[in-house]
Amino acid sequence: MNLSSDIDIELKKISCLVQSGRLTEALKEVDIAILKNKNELELYKTKTRILDSLGHFNEIIDTWEEGIQNNKNEFLFYQEKVYALKSQNKLEEIIQCYDYGIMNNKNDPLFYTYKNSELERQNKKEEVIKVWELGIDNNKTDPYYYKRKVQALIDLFGAENSWEKIVQCWDQAIQNGNDAVFYFKSKASALEQLERWDEVIQCLNQGINQHKHVQFLYDDKANYLKKLNRLEAIIECWDDGIKNNPHNRYFYGKKIKALEDQEKIEQIIKESSIYIKQFNDIIFYEAKAKCLQIQGMKEEVIQCWDEGIEQNQYQISFYLKKIEALKNQQRWIDSIQCCDQVLSKKILESQEIYSNKEHSLEQLKQFRQAIQYSRLIQSDQNLKFWF
User: Fold this and answer.
1) Whose CA is closest to 68, among 58, 81, 59?
2) What backbone torsions phi and psi does residue 58 show, to the nearest 5 degrees?
3) CA angle 15, 16, 17 (to 5 degrees)
4) What is the CA radius of gyration of the chain?
5) Among 72, 113, 275, 381, which one has the highest count of C-beta atoms within 10 angstroms of its own C-beta?
């Protein structure tokens, strides 16, 4: 503990008096020192040690009460009084001490937390809920108090018997103007436990209205709607996401995935074509090509990947997708030509291209040339291993 030099001198002087057995004089000296230094915890501790030696146990509590009155916002003074009260088994007064601390420090969670612990020690668990309700009343926008009330409910009643009260707690938080995503997600999770699905959706809608750009709120809503088999509502959910986030491809990708789950082939082809122009992202080319393949539109599949290559001439993934499509159609010569197109651009990571060309040559029974590309693959692997 860092003490000022003046206080350190006082404490040494008092210590000498104590060691000489002059306890009454020491007590007077420490009282004088406290009058001059009302905020110095060590002086109060010294006084209580002297009082303990004199057997003046009630005055120890009075000393800490004096310290509290002089330092109403310092938790340590309350804590020292509690220790003194515990030593005399004055359990009710401990609770009163924390109550006084809360009254003077309504926004400090430490006082509520220690009162909570004391009530649990005294097996007054039902009163614990009231501690956190008071904390909420005094701190309407602090999530700590709502979380602690929820935990207190679970500890007292068990999770299965608490969900209704937990919903009410999170609803109170939202009603108190707390619009953080956390509150909506917590309330929705509690409602899920009660299987009150319409209210879950309403809660998430409320959250989305407050947080239009938060992706997982839409994800959660879509997942709940899927459980309820509300297929059209899932599409509407992602339409809302797109409307609220027109430049975020995440929502467009999610809508395409939902359409895939519902096998809406023609709609996927139509909307993927729009999204390709908007984002030029391979996931939309893949979705379109897959649906074209399902409809047996083989040439259109290749055209889809040709468009992708035209827009992404140095991204090997588009060439690989086209080569895969050509191989599926057993168009071996076209596959080889596509491989040569990539190799002519000297794109790095060409090992897969060599492998695809080797395979196509083998299908055409051009084994000598296939062996050459097999050696190129082996040489490329050895080079990578060497580095």
Assistant:
1) 81
2) -65, -35
3) 90
4) 37
5) 275
* b/e burial code for range 33-68 (CB count within 10 A of at least 16 → b): bbeebeebbebbbbbbebbeeeeeeebbbebbbbbb
Residue 384 has a pLDDT of: 40
Q: What are the tokens at 60?
A: 């120890």
Q: What is the mean pLDDT of residues 191-210?
A: 97
Please give the C-alpha separations between residue 65 and each of 50, 204, 376, in angstroms, as whole numbers: 16, 50, 87
Which distant-in-sequence residues (6+ apart) come within 8 Å of 137 by Cβ? none
Q: What is the rounded CA–CA span in Å between residue 347 and residue 352?
A: 11
- Per-residue pLDDT, 379: 66
- Per-residue pLDDT of 22-79, as tens digits, reads 899 889 988 999 999 999 999 999 999 999 999 999 999 999 999 999 999 999 999 9
Distances (CA, A) of 295 to 124, 270, 288, 301: 69, 13, 11, 10
Q: Which two three-digit tokens encode residue 186?
A: 């917590």
pLDDT at 194: 97
Report d(CA 354, CA 340) in Å as an integer.
Answer: 9
Q: Would you state the structure tokens that stand for residue 216, as one six-digit string?
A: 């997982």
Q: pLDDT per residue over 225-242, tens digit each?
A: 999 999 999 999 999 999
387 touches 354 (CB < 8 A) = no
**What's the rounded mean pLDDT across residues 352-380?**
84
pLDDT of residue 382: 41
Exposed e or buried b per residue across 132-157, where buried means at least 16 C-beta atoms within 10 angstroms of its C-beta: bebbbebbeeeeebbbbbbebbbeeb
pLDDT at 1: 47
Spatial distance between the Cα atoms of 365 and 359, rounded to a whole number of angstroms: 10
DSSP of 124-167, one letter per residue?
Answer: -HHHHHHHHHHHHHH-TT-HHHHHHHHHHHHHHH-GGGTHHHHH
Distance (Å, whole) CA 267 – CA 239: 14
Structural domains present in the chain: 106-211 (1.25.40.10)
List the one residue out of 288, 282, 285 whose CA is nearest residue 259.
Answer: 288
